[in-house]
Amino acid sequence: MRIFFLIFALVSFSVVIYIIPQVYGDGFTQETLPAASVGNRTVSLFIKINPPIITSDSNQDRYLLFRWFDANTNQTIPHTTFLVFVTKHNQLLVKSLFHTHTGILKLKITPSNDIKKWSINGTKEPFLDGTMYLPQDNRPIDITAPMLGEGGLYHIYVLLVTIDSDSNLFAPQIAPKFDSFLSVGDVSNHDMKYHNDTYNTTLVSYYDKTGNFDFDQSKMQVSWSMPFDWNSTRFQNMPIFVHEELRIPKSFKEFGETPTFSGTVNGDPISGAKIISDPYSTNNVLVLHLLLNKNDIKEIAKTTPLKVNTMNFTITPASPDIKTSSTVYTDFGGWEINLGWNPGKTLANSQNEIKLSFSDIFTGRRVLYNVNYDMKILDNGGNTILSKTGLVARNGTDIIPINLPANGIYNIQISVKSVVSNSLPDYSRGGVGRGSLVIPSDIDQSSVPELGSLVGITVAVSMIFCVTISRKFL
Questions:
Q1: Preceding omega of 135 cis (within 30 degrees of 0)
Q2: Any idea what DSSP says for residue 11?
Q3: What does the angle CA 456 – CA 337 – CA 315 come to, to the nearest 5 degrees?
Q4: N- to C-terminal Cα distance for the chain?
Q5: How far is CA 44 from CA 67, 100, 131, 134, 309, in A?
Q6: Are 470 and 426 contacting, i.e. CB atoms less than 8 angstroms apart?
Q7: CB–CB of 385/367 below 8 Å?
Q8: pLDDT in tens, 98-151
Q9: How far is it, in rounded angstroms, from Cα 201 to Cα 220?
Q10: Is there a contact between 223 and 212 (Cβ–Cβ < 8 Å)?
């Protein structure tokens, strides 16, 4: 029976690796997988790459976290044994059997360059006619393997072997199986030549590896591509998010002196709110964030033939056209922040109010728990005019009074620090949303949702990115 189970597991994995077509994941660094029925319970698995933002050129320690839990009660399930297979573009990187008495396991990953070799440094025990690794004193198990060092999507396939007790072994035909696709940012450096000058530019993709980078100086246009499966049925019932980041020297004034940019994906225009210009966070560098949520991707998929297997980007400077923002998106963390303004005509040296309403991009739902955040308003020269820290949007909403001294264009920065549910803070989804305030400004309040109404991205999802569950864990 035990030998048969191992054979079954390996054969099952072979089917996954060599028969299924190439699949691209959802572009996140953590995921709560759909639950499986086990007796009278629903068992789910939370997987997370930590730190939540790592790129292929960073030197941070890298961890892979697993937590088994009952999806109905959120109780961690102890004494779990599971097979883990990690692949990238169908290349096997790691396979091993692990056990955790607590139901929580942390693997410390040291990236290596040998694509066909991995090593595990941990407590070993014989199990199922093979070797099983256990954490010692709840310390991470050390793994040296060709993973999490190079940017791109990693497929993590997990087969649950035991639950509740070390001897409670699943029959092969009913062993729950879990599939996850998580991302490591890909970093590439490129030279942009304009007239007689060369500007070193960095492109960071938080979804998959990029290629075909080009700068057309006659159009003042940057372009690049990334692998992508446009069959929308594959992400119909899961969250998906694409984040690209272009870093350009501020000395390239012909490109970066405008505050607004336009872009396309596969020829479809990207709305202005989805290209965020950040000239403040990094000295001497203009950072452009390009953000696509599930609705954006679904709309582009309608006009993209299935035979196309890339996401093709362009960004170019646009004529200055700054308007007061009604919605901003955080660069990381997956938050949409709707901004309502009272009164509708904002004036200098007068009392105004910003109404903030937070939504979760991954689920498309209004946030109903507390959000801890800071807010800063800068003038057009980057000087801080207003700074408020330690703010709390209770049940996902807040109202902030402001009084700005003069007419002009202001930059709003909303920094999400943590979200809190059941008194437990989750710091893993921090990010900064950036927008504009023009004074004087007439604001179209019809486009701004009222507080208390459902806002955000309307998506039909059956697999929810379960922040509440992950918060319990962290």
A1: no
A2: H
A3: 90
A4: 37
A5: 8, 15, 25, 20, 31
A6: yes
A7: no
A8: 999 999 999 999 999 888 889 998 888 877 667 889 888 878 999 999 988 887
A9: 14
A10: yes
What amino acid occupies position 463? M
pTM above 0.85, yes or no: no
The CA distance from 321 to 306, in Å, is 35
Q: Which residues contact 223 (CB under 8 A, 6 or more apart)?
A: 212, 213, 214, 215, 216, 312, 313, 314, 315
Query: pLDDT tens, 65-77?
Result: 999 998 888 889 9
Task: Supply φ then ψ for residue 470, to 5 degrees.
Answer: -65, -30
> Are the C-beta atoms of 434 and 278 separated by less than 8 Å?
yes
Nearest to 412 by CA among 257, 249, 278, 275: 278
Please return the burial class of 412, using the count of CB atoms within 10 Å of its CB with bins 0-12, 13-18 and 19+.
buried
Alpha-carbon distance values, 16 to 13, 98, 179, 349 (Å): 5, 20, 10, 64
Number of Cβ atoms within 10 Å of the Cβ of 239: 22
Minimal CA–CA distance to 98: which of 78, 85, 84, 109? 84
| Counts for the chain of helices (H) and strands (E), in that order | 4, 35
Give CA–CA dist 255/221, Å, rounded: 9
3-state secondary structure at position 471: helix
Whether the Cβ atoms of residue 441 and residue 324 lie closer than 8 Å to each other: yes
SS3 at position 447: helix
CA distance 62 to 47: 13
